[in-house]
Amino acid sequence: MPHRLANGDFEVAFDEAVGGSLGAATWRGLDILHTRPGNSVLDAGCFPLVPFSNRIAASRFSFGDRDVALEPNHPGDPDSPVIHGFGWLSDWTVEQLRETRATLGFRYEGGAWPWPFEARQDIAVHGNGFELGLALRNLGEDPMPAGLGFHPYFPRNDRTLFKSLHKGEWVTDEAMIPTRIEEHLAPVDWWEGKPVATRNVDTVYTGRDGPLLVDWPDREIGVRIEPSPELAFTTVYVPEGEDYFCVEPVSHMTDAFNRHCQDTGARVLAAGEEWSVAMRLEVYTL
Question: Which processes are annotated in GO (biological process) (predicted)?
Answer without folding.
Answer: carbohydrate metabolic process
